[in-house]
Amino acid sequence: MSNAFDPAKQSADAPILFALEGHVAVLTLNRPATRNALSGEEMFHAFEAIFAYMNQNTQVRASILTGAGTAFCSGGNIAEMRDKEGMFKGSPTEIAQNYKKGIQRIPRAFQTLTVPMIAAVNGAAIGAGNDLACMCDIRIASEKAVFAESFVKVGIIPGDGGCWLLPRVIGHAHAAQMALSGDSIDAKEALRIGLVTQVVAPDELMKEAMLVAQRIAKNPPQVLRWTKQLMQEARGSTLDQALERAGEFQGLAHQTSDHMEALNAFFEKREPRFSGH
Asked: What is the pTM of this model?
């Protein structure tokens, strides 16, 4: 399997479909038969390879993640759990290693992603699917979306980082209620607790996600990446550390041609034209 991702060479049955619309990348989980379950080396590698491509391509300024079919992502493959196959095969120690070499590569890949990511949650986001949405920077939901941190319902724990991700999105109390009950919530409740920022009609979902992505993509690409990196690092840093890092990036930002273009456009009362330099 080649490590590099080439959009021109992707197949129609790729686990994640990639399309670039202007400066916005659209990623579509492409396993509708399993409700886009996160399973298999091909899927794990696709996240890593596509993210590496996006990081290196400054034409990509924002991105959207959605699911093919009626589900966003159903989480782990329940049939493989039942049959003790794939990641779920072996002793406790072996299973821990399977997770490390398998699904845990997805949150680690997200930690390396420098491009802002919007989750367009078109349907069920269950278990690891809910966590996948939380790995994104922004979540917009269809009225048909359903969310659940449902691991306890099948007798396991959130093995893909959900106990780290979910409280950082909706706070400890709401996260605890979702994770400990395993109950599902609808899009309206997800909006109330801050899991999503918008709820729209199903046929408006991708249009609205694209509008948000395009508003983001109008800004200087390198500054977008630095801002996202600062927000990611701030999750685990002190205020002093965050300020130190902000100073470093600000020093770089003030030297970019995009900074001067933004200032010139402001005073000339025109739309800026950013180059990424």
From this structure: 0.95
